[in-house]
Design brief:
135 residues; alpha+beta; 3 helices; 4 strands
Length: 135
């Protein structure tokens, strides 16, 4: 990713954060730590054909609060929204494929996805929410 031209996030000891990392901590929680900002996304299946996605970006305090950077923040959010739409389509297709009558063991098939699904349900229970199959 190219630089946004704003101050980098800082480590605890005040050093600039010099790394780009995009990881999935929970199956549906994505953390993107780009030099100048942190972006979090939570994707939830809402039915067999669709998902909802919630996300937020965090910047250095000066960038996050200054009106001077409103346009930059809007551009960053638009970029993440665009990527999120594509990711949501992929995740929705994966969820739909799980219930497909032609689904067979293999990548993105029940054999591989069941642990992923079970772990997501554990997270839902930890958060005190109902399981998706109890709606």
């Amino acid at each position: 990713y190219g630089s946004l031209g704003v101050p980098d996030l800082k480590t605890r000891d005040g050093q600039p954060f010099d790394c780009n990392i995009i990881v999935s901590l929970y199956p549906n929680l994505y953390v993107s730590l780009i030099e100048e900002h942190l972006h979090l996304t939570i994707v939830n299946p809402v039915d067999k054909d669709g998902v909802s996605a919630e996300s937020a970006s965090y910047f250095d305090r000066e960038i996050a609060t200054s009106p001077e950077y409103n346009e930059l923040r809007s551009l960053v959010e638009a970029g993440w929204a665009s990527a999120g739409e594509e990711d949501a389509e992929i995740i929705a297709a994966i969820h739909a494929a799980r219930s497909s009558p032609v689904s067979a063991p293999g990548y993105y098939a029940p054999f591989w996805d069941r642990p992923h699904y079970s772990f997501t349900q554990q997270v839902v229970l930890d958060l005190g929410l109902k399981r998706s199959d109890e709606r």
